[in-house]
């Protein structure tokens, strides 16, 4: 936005902030009508805008009837992680299909460093897209709030917390953990372990909550030695499985919070001489191609990933169009798919 101001001679948002004696985010919130601004700040920003003759890029575009017809899909991962995990590819497939139907351009953005994040923030501030879709968001990720401050419509894949204020599309992750453990318990398993995702992600905490709910429903004692944190990667699943076997060699069931982590766990179980499912039954989440191709084929809790991508795009397009139609908070059902691993 600052670059645009220098090119056209228009005052920039940063100059308004400096004149008003407030931060850039405060100016953005005032411009976009956020209630999270004091009356004093509103007055200072309003006076600075009047004195400088500042016109926000977004307002100028709206006056001209202009739109970019482009949506940014942001995934804070490396290329290797993106192409190794079917989850991201299915989300992209769903988003791309929905945006294609609406004649909107999809801009895929990977953020791998703080420098890339800052560059992307500048890109957003210049209003070069009409909205943002965010995937794999961690609890302390500032990007959703930044997008809100700038005034761009945004939709999350998942949530940062139970009270997430930004529109989102999620699946019933607590139910996924609960149904996985219920299935293992019904198969006679009594020492059921879990491999979680990173616990600064709400999705991982919900699946862990579901695991604990499932143990309680089956009258099984919760044992924290049977819980190992990982990172939704295959290598993370391998590390966690080794840790669990070292702590609890008598475990007879494992709920891995993703198919990819279950694949890593399966490799370690084989190396340790444990047979699946005879000695240790195994359940994952996603019902991805990984589940179907494993040996033995993996029992997995299916979440409709491609449909999640479609719904995210649909919710965002409704926001861009002015609201109505799709709800702002969507939670999709999951379903246990039983295969040979359990």
From TrEMBL:
Membrane-crossing residue ranges in chain numbering: none
Record keyword Repressor present: no
Keyword Transcription regulation carried by entry: yes
Family matches, as CDD domains: HTH_LacI (cd01392), PBP1_LacI_sugar_binding-like (cd06267)
A Pfam entry, by short name: LacI
Record's keyword terms, sorted: DNA-binding, Transcription, Transcription regulation
Protein known as: LacI family transcriptional regulator
Lineage: Bacteria, Bacillati, Actinomycetota, Actinomycetes, Kitasatosporales
